[in-house]
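hey so i finally got around to running the thing on that chain from the lab meeting. sorry it took forever, my laptop kept dying and i had to restart like 3 times. anyway pasting the input first so we r on the same page abt which one it is
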Amino acid sequence: MQVVKQYPDGLFCWLDLTTTDPEAAKAFYGALFGWEFEDTPTDTGTMYTMCRIEGYDVAGLSGMSPDMIAQGMPPVWVSYVKHDDVDAIAARVSEAGGILMFPPMDAMSAGRMTLVQDPTGAAFGVWQPKEHIGAQLVNSPNTLIWNELQTRDKAAAKAFYTQVFDWGYAEDANGYGMFKVGERVQAGMMQMDESWDANIPANWAVYFMVADVAAAAARVSELGGNILVPLMSAGEMGKFAVAQDPQGGVFTIMQFDGPVDPPPGY
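ok and heres what got predicted. didnt touch it at all, straight out
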């Protein structure tokens, strides 16, 4: 098992789910991915849950505030980019036309963070680690393997992320965008065209690796979730499906037909 020890700046390092029903979410993801859970009180009086595989952190989970629920906000997976100076990144965000959803703040002794909305409307977090480096397991079954920006303005998004994080950028023959840190291709970008539902906002989609995507999709349905996009081919890479948990959180499950990149910094 390859356990991540630290993340280079600019790589996605963490993800967490904000949901209307944490206990139901734990039951769903525990049954789907085999995750274990540990609840930890925060200094705001709320509970934050660590999701683990064999004792290693893979994701986080927390409940929505009453105000968020009253506003009808849907459950959402949020991805976090690692950086050792979140305050400097926050300044870059503003300069590049993004919006700070709140200024950098300490998350007790775990780290320092902010949430950002890019100029196309997609939200993500920035994480400066202290005691918590992020996900200790990635790029292995039942863990995060890919982050994908789905946006209606690729040009604006490319300009923003390359300025804020110094990401490299390339496109394949089909126009699919790929963000790079050094030589590591670490995230994708897809243009949302007129075929997409107009109600779907720009977002950072999360992909979980599974050994058998057909079996995982069937399990999603058995557990009360929905399959929003049925099993599809990703060419030579493998197959995927887009799923929704019973509370409304959306994620992608993907089976790879060949080798995957090793985790960073292990």
